[in-house]
Amino acid sequence: xxxxxxxxxxxxxxxxxxYTHTSATCQGLTAxxxxxxxxxxxxxxxxxxxxTLITSPVLRAAQTATAVGAAVGLTPRVCPDLRVPDPxxxxxxxWDALRTRYGPDPTHPPRPxxxxxxxxxxxxxxxxxxxxxxxHDDGTLAIVGHSETVLSALTLLIGTPVLRALQVAVGPTSxxxxxxxxxxxxxxxxxxxxxxxxxxxxxxxxxxALVH
Length: 212
Fold this sequence. Notes:
This protein is an alpha/beta fold. Helices cover 35% and strands 21% of the residues.
């Protein structure tokens, strides 16, 4: 089977509704988020033969992965290093208040400079994603994580720590798809390349459910 990796953002969560920075204290999905997760699960079951399902331990991602697992017949495997950047003292506080109090992270200004830095997060997540990509031999690997997971994958494959002026929109339950490239014999590349075949795809959601 072709090697495919799906990087999926969790469904609409309570932390999104309150605009708060949460990891350990995450309260999971809203009713809308659960509906989105069910729509996502139906789509994946219809369009992909998911062979491996991995999730962030953060509740909003784990609940999304559970819905997917029920549809594709897999139990999600929790990967702790796929969690969001650790909030530290910012846990449970509003993003606006944290930006005012701590100022911007110098390497990723949209985030406040508290808890785990963006550089530290990328070091952790890049190592994890590299291992997952290298260990994925065939079939479809589905990774349920966060918007940061998608950004981490893109910076890893592009080879840059930041995307600078490029903002990447990945809404709740959006699907970003990567397909392993088979090089021609005459192409002098020794590392695996990946084709970005979908970015932030939410075509499984109704107009009402398209919340960012």
